[in-house]
Amino acid sequence: MTGHLKALRQELKGGRLALHAIVLVLCALWFTPIAGLVASSLRSQSEMGISGWWQIFVDPKVTLDNYARAIGYVGVLNAAGTSLALAIPVTILTTLLSAIGAYALVRLEPPRARLFAAALVVLLVLPPQVTVVPLLKLFVAIGLNGKVPAVWLYQVGFTIPYGVFLIRGFLISIPEEIFESAVIDGANPLQIFTAIVIPLCAPILAALAILQFLWSWNDLLIPLIFLGGGTLAPPITVQAAGIATSNGQDEPVLMAATCLSVALPLIILVSLQRYFVRGIVSGSVKG
After folding, report:
1. Using CA atoms, how far apart are residues 80 and 167, in angstroms rounded to an integer?
2. Spatial separation of the C-alpha atoms in residues 195 and 217, rounded to whole Å
């Protein structure tokens, strides 16, 4: 019996070591492109022409001129302000409207709920890119093209079906008795939503908010199309992409601009990853 226990302990220990090794390999693979991006942004064009980015760890010749030039070209403050003006309202609106839609869908009668759930799946399958031209013509006709609300409408509208689908998977696991008890106590639907649904859905709402902020901040196509011709400064992704076309031979400056563009999303993702994982896991398991 003792021999079997020792063998079992050794097997479990070996399994943990293998798991840790796999996690370390995956982390190395995930961070390698980021390390290459940062290293390239700190090297001169002449050095990049004769050796790979990993050479910086052998012969560390670092320069910050690339960041100074990228900041001067991109206009970080104005570009980041535009990106925040797009991402923050889109994140708030998507999270709030998705929670309202998911709650309404869960409280519907089964036949209508199934019909709307099927419609959500259809909307998720629809590629947003096929609607760019029709919506661009509509926004031009109503005078909305080149303005921030055009991007809000597009990004919020095409993310709400996913948000409703995600939150609905969490809400259907909440016992019906909780809602019935609230009704007996005299709570109206708004009170139930604010006092019960929102607190219970906090993890999944946080995960959705993180996802939407990252999607909106990193979006290049939609701001490029719907903000074109406007007086507002382009978002940071559009400005960074402009370096690739107008100054494509200066790769270190492009790498520095890219680092500036991904810095905030990377900080958010790393610092809030526990809330993101908790929300996604709770929604997938309970749904």
Report:
1. 30
2. 31
DSSP letter assigned to residue 194: I
Enclosing H/E stretch for 263: helix 251-271
How far out from the chain centre does Cα 205 lie? 13
- What is the pLDDT, as a whole number, of residue 284? 47
What CATH superfamily is the domain 73-286? MetI-like (1.10.3720.10)
Query: What count of other Cβ atoms lies within 10 Å of the Cβ of residue 19?
Result: 10
Domain with CATH 1.10.3720.10 in the chain: 73-286
**What does the alpha-carbon distance between residue 148 and residue 230 come to, in Å, rounded to a whole number?**
9
Is the pLDDT at 86 greater than 60, yes or no? yes
**54-81: pLDDT as tens digits:** 777 777 778 888 888 888 776 777 888 8
Task: Count the Cβ atoms, other than its own, within 10 Å of residue 57.
Answer: 9
Token code pair at residue 45: 């064009």
